[in-house]
Each structure stands twice: as structure tokens, then as C-alpha cells.
Amino acid sequence: MKSLILTTGARLLIALFLVFSLYVLLRGHNAPGGGFIGGLIAACGFAIHAFASGVAEARRALRVDPRVIGVLGLVCALAAGLMAWPLGFDPFAGVWGEVAGYKVSSVLLFDIGVYLAVVGGILTLIFALEETL
Amino acid sequence: MNWTLALPILVPFCAAALAFLLRNRRGSGWISVGGSVLSLILALQLLAEVLRHGVIATQMSAWAAPFGITLAADYLSAAMVLITAIIGLAVALWGMAEVGQISARMGWHGLFQTLIGGVTGAFLTGDLFNLYVWFEVLLISSFGLLVIGGQRKAVDGAVKYVTLNLISTVLFLCAAGLTYGATGTLNMADLRAAVAAHPDQGLMTVIAMMFMIGFGLKAAVFPLFFWLPASYHTPHYAVSAVFAGLLTKVGVYALIRVFTLIFVGDQGYTHEILLWVACLTMLTGVLGAAAQSDFRKILSFHIISQIGYMVLGLALMTPLAVMGGVFYLLHHIIVKANLFLVAGVSRRLTGSSDLYAIGGLYRSAPLLAVLFLIPAFSLAGFPPLSGFWAKYVLVKASLDLGQGLVAFVALLTGLLTIFSMTKIWAEAFWKAHPDGRQPRLASIPARARVLLLSPMIALALMTVLIGLFPDPFVTFATTGAEQLLDPSAYVATVLERGAE
């Protein structure tokens, strides 16, 4: 069922959802938020797109198979956990470094991994349900 | 030492990610096998470390216990991790010959490694909430494995499986929440003292019962077992084998861990219930099996009755009984997984798993007959195979306590197990094939034959080895039982390292 109101509104909403999800992801380091909830918000954005314009369109907008996104998230999280090994830290200990004056850490990489895993996992389920129902 | 505990969990996940990303290539199964080989090496290293130190523990990201996530391994955990790795490797190899390109494209190998990683994580964690997370990992990956490659029937079984297991995990989560609310900690070692010191012991017993039901559903004990026979006979045989070997044992392990380490305050109540549950589980499982005529369904019901023996060891709570329970757990995983693998090969040779529609395997595939006889007799408790020692110890432990009825039930279950195994033997192996087929092992292509038979032969050899030389295994299980009954070393190791 196509609804003009929903498709028009969805364009605005998706952009809002995606930006807000990134905000929540980055905010999560020291305040409530983080990869999990950020991932859920981003998945909501694509889910709205799927409801408004169909799953095929949403898959095209996503460009990558959601399962691959989920597994790449797993890879990011694993890399963040294993990074401590060659440096002699405990498993999953935060590794900090500085790039061009900005502090970067394996903690952020782990959170991004969670974000991608959640986006991939949720969208795999939602797309599959939408396609079979 | 810190990485010794973490790597056995991380490696399967790395293998899972790689196998999934390369799932369209022909060799993606070999990534899974490679990951399993690495896991086996790491599990051996972990066991060596545990043998040297008794108990080892580490904290994720160096957040001190009881606040961070603890990974800890005593004898039981280390042995379970090793056996998980052994079964993982055996089934990964065996699965290469069974799981086709279609299932591989859907990500079968990745899900399989995720499952192994989840099982390993559940055995190593020292934190109740973390255990819950591993249960979720197991549930998600096992659901995927149940559905892939199956038909409508598989989805039906999978839905039953997931619904009932979700109830179990929700109950577990509620119990964990209540525990946290009442004691303020979820670290298992820390909980031992916190639960004992709690003023309201009645509340603690209620929480303990919630854990018992949650884990009991996972372990498929009476009367919560009905999901198991409904789902285990539908997916790939490789999946059934790894489920039969490992999944329910995670529930048993969680029961053992929680009811030796944390909830020991009201043993007259909790362990009495466990004792009845154990007896009824043994009996109903074996009686259910007697009514079945499908190869895998008979074996599925036998899992249930065998779970009863393990719970029996926990319920009696004497050093000998817990030792018997631990020994049973270890021996059973090898035997049961192997029986499912035999069922898989027999299905491939004869074209059906219905015992009345197949036959003639003894004449045409004698090697398969031998490979069936070893685990089957071990399961029934024939000397000198591994199952004999496991049953002997448990029966002796119950007689020592004057529990004659319990010993009788255990022996009766053994007898009825022989009945079912004889039924499979007579129908699938002894009688001629109804259609006159002569299913030979040589009809399987050479590469597949090696992949199918070598893990089965290795597992059968392990069964014989444990049976003929039980001494080191009994000594190991005895120390393991001592650690379980007196977890002071476990508690000290976990909390001391946290205090550093």
C-alpha cells in the first residue's frame, strides 16, 4: 500500500533518524546512548523507508546486504577486542591514540561494531518479515 | 594468562565472520574447520593452564571483579571447553560432506562457528548476566541452523524450539534481575557470599527455583523437555549432532554451576526437587524412546533420559555423585554426537531414517555397524566402555546414601536403553533392507567418505579409550567435583584478581 503522506514524510524522517543515530552513537561514550541504541534508531530509519517505498527500494538505498553489515560489525568489535593483544593489555581493554589532534580509541571502534551489528541484524529480520508477509 | 581464557571464545567468532563473508566461495567450510583446529589447540592450552593452577580467572578490559565481566575456568569449565572444541572440529569436518552449497551460501558455516563460540562463552563466563547473553547467542545461531536447509517440517520444529527457549531465557533474565535487585551483584563468585548473607532466605529459594526452571528448560529435564524431540530430528544431521552433544549440556552445566556455587543454602528443598526431576527425566526419556521408530527420534528421547543421570549427580551432592555427574557429562557428549553422526551416514546409505523402511547395514556396511555399536553400548552402560564407569559411579553414589529407589531407577533406565539400542540394531543393521537395497559405504565418493568417517572413528576411539583407561579421567573428574563442592578456590581466584 503506497501512501503519499508516508513517502513524503519518510524522506525527512530517514535523514533525521540517521543523523540522530550517529549523534547517539558518539554521545554514548560518556553519556547515555551508544552503539546499541544508535543502531536501533538507524534501523528504524531504514524500516520506515521499507514501509513507505517497499523492501526492494530500501535494500537499494542500503546498498549492502544487511547480513554483511551485521558481520562487518562483528569484525569491528572483534578487532577492537583483539587490538589490545599485541600491545600487552587485557582482552577488550581500551587502546587510545591520537590522530591529527583528535583522541581515538578502540572503545569507539567497538561501539561502531555494535552499531553495525544491530543495524544489520534488525534489518535482516525486518526485511525478511516484510518480504514474506 | 588473560588471553588464555578469552581466545577460545574469540577464535570461533573470527572464524564465523570470515566464513560468512566468504560464504559464496567453495572453500568456506575449510575456514570453519581451520577455526575449529585453532580452537582445539587453544582449549588444550587452557586445560594445561588449569591443570597447573587449579582455577584461573581474568577480567575483561581489566575492570575489577565483581564489577567487570569475569571469565573463569575450573576443571569442569576447562574440560567442557575442550570437549566443545573436539565436537566442534568433528562436526565441522563431518558437516563438509553433508552441508551442501545452498546451505553454505546461506551462511551455515558462520552460524555453526557462532554456536560453538556461544557454547564456549557460556562455559567460561563467571557472570550471570554474561551467561544470559551467551544463551541469547546460542538461541539465535541455533535457530538459524535449524531453519537452514530444512523444509516446512524444520520450520515447524524450529518455532517450537524458539518459543519454549524464549520462555526459558525470559525466566532466566527475570531471575537474574531479582538476584541483582536483592544482592546488588551478578558476579557468580561474589554471589556465593552475598546470597548466603541475605536476610530473606525464602526469597533466595524462590529465585533459585526460577533459575532451576529456566535452566531446566534448556537442559530438557522432566517435565520441560517436550521441545527437544519436536525439533532435533528435522535439520541437517550435523546440526542435530552438535545440538545433541552440546546444547542441552549448556543447561546442565548452568544448573551444576548455579546449584553448587550460588544456591546451596536450602539444599533440603532444591536438591530434593532436583532428585525427583532426575529420576522422572531418566524414566520418561527412555520410555518415550521405546515408543519411537525413527532413528533420530529415538536418539533424541535418549538425550533426555541421559540428562537425568547428570542431574542425578548434582542432586545427590556427595563428592562421588558429583564426580559421577561430571564424568557422565563428558562421556555423554562424545557418545551422543557420534550416534547422531552414525544416524546421518545410515540415512545417506539407506535413504530414510524410518527404522521400518531401512535395513541391511550390518551385511553391507560392517564398519558403520561397529561405529554404531561402540557408542550405543557405551550409552547403555556396557563394560568396558565409558558409559559403564559413569553409570557405575552414579549407582554406587546413590546406594551409599541409602537411595535404593534412585539406584533402581538408574539401572532400569540402563536396561531400557539397551532395549532401544537393540531395536535400532535389529531394524537398521540386522534385518535385510525391505527393498533389497545393499547400501555400501563404498557408494559414497572417496572425499566425502573420509570426511564422514574419520570424525566418527576418532570419537569412537575416545569412547573406547575412556572406557579402557578410566583412571586419569576419574581422577580429573574427582578433582573437578571437589572444586565444585568446595568452591573457595574459585571464589578466591576470581575476587583476588579483581582486588589487584
Automatic annotation (TrEMBL), chain A:
<feature type="transmembrane region" description="Helical">
    <location>
        <begin position="107"/>
        <end position="129"/>
    </location>
</feature>
<comment type="similarity">
    <text>Belongs to the CPA3 antiporters (TC 2.A.63) subunit B family.</text>
</comment>
<keyword id="KW-0472">Membrane</keyword>
<feature type="transmembrane region" description="Helical">
    <location>
        <begin position="35"/>
        <end position="56"/>
    </location>
</feature>
<keyword id="KW-1133">Transmembrane helix</keyword>
<protein>
    <submittedName>
        <fullName>Na(+)/H(+) antiporter subunit B</fullName>
    </submittedName>
</protein>
<keyword id="KW-1003">Cell membrane</keyword>
<keyword id="KW-0812">Transmembrane</keyword>
<feature type="domain" description="Na+/H+ antiporter MnhB subunit-related protein">
    <location>
        <begin position="5"/>
        <end position="124"/>
    </location>
</feature>
<dbReference type="InterPro" id="IPR007182">
    <property type="entry name" value="MnhB"/>
</dbReference>
<dbReference type="GO" id="GO:0005886">
    <property type="term" value="C:plasma membrane"/>
</dbReference>
<feature type="transmembrane region" description="Helical">
    <location>
        <begin position="68"/>
        <end position="87"/>
    </location>
</feature>
<dbReference type="InterPro" id="IPR050622">
    <property type="entry name" value="CPA3_antiporter_subunitB"/>
</dbReference>
<dbReference type="Pfam" id="PF04039">
    <property type="entry name" value="MnhB"/>
</dbReference>
<feature type="transmembrane region" description="Helical">
    <location>
        <begin position="12"/>
        <end position="29"/>
    </location>
</feature>
TrEMBL record, chain B:
<keyword id="KW-1003">Cell membrane</keyword>
<keyword id="KW-0812">Transmembrane</keyword>
<feature type="transmembrane region" description="Helical">
    <location>
        <begin position="131"/>
        <end position="149"/>
    </location>
</feature>
<feature type="domain" description="NADH:quinone oxidoreductase/Mrp antiporter transmembrane">
    <location>
        <begin position="126"/>
        <end position="417"/>
    </location>
</feature>
<feature type="transmembrane region" description="Helical">
    <location>
        <begin position="161"/>
        <end position="182"/>
    </location>
</feature>
<feature type="transmembrane region" description="Helical">
    <location>
        <begin position="106"/>
        <end position="125"/>
    </location>
</feature>
<dbReference type="GO" id="GO:0005886">
    <property type="term" value="C:plasma membrane"/>
</dbReference>
<feature type="transmembrane region" description="Helical">
    <location>
        <begin position="237"/>
        <end position="261"/>
    </location>
</feature>
<feature type="transmembrane region" description="Helical">
    <location>
        <begin position="298"/>
        <end position="320"/>
    </location>
</feature>
<feature type="transmembrane region" description="Helical">
    <location>
        <begin position="450"/>
        <end position="469"/>
    </location>
</feature>
<feature type="transmembrane region" description="Helical">
    <location>
        <begin position="326"/>
        <end position="345"/>
    </location>
</feature>
<dbReference type="Pfam" id="PF00361">
    <property type="entry name" value="Proton_antipo_M"/>
</dbReference>
<comment type="function">
    <text>NDH-1 shuttles electrons from NADH, via FMN and iron-sulfur (Fe-S) centers, to quinones in the respiratory chain. The immediate electron acceptor for the enzyme in this species is believed to be ubiquinone. Couples the redox reaction to proton translocation (for every two electrons transferred, four hydrogen ions are translocated across the cytoplasmic membrane), and thus conserves the redox energy in a proton gradient.</text>
</comment>
<feature type="transmembrane region" description="Helical">
    <location>
        <begin position="365"/>
        <end position="385"/>
    </location>
</feature>
<feature type="transmembrane region" description="Helical">
    <location>
        <begin position="68"/>
        <end position="94"/>
    </location>
</feature>
<dbReference type="InterPro" id="IPR001750">
    <property type="entry name" value="ND/Mrp_TM"/>
</dbReference>
<keyword id="KW-0472">Membrane</keyword>
<feature type="transmembrane region" description="Helical">
    <location>
        <begin position="6"/>
        <end position="22"/>
    </location>
</feature>
<dbReference type="InterPro" id="IPR050586">
    <property type="entry name" value="CPA3_Na-H_Antiporter_D"/>
</dbReference>
<feature type="transmembrane region" description="Helical">
    <location>
        <begin position="29"/>
        <end position="48"/>
    </location>
</feature>
<keyword id="KW-1133">Transmembrane helix</keyword>
<protein>
    <submittedName>
        <fullName>Na+/H+ antiporter subunit D</fullName>
    </submittedName>
</protein>
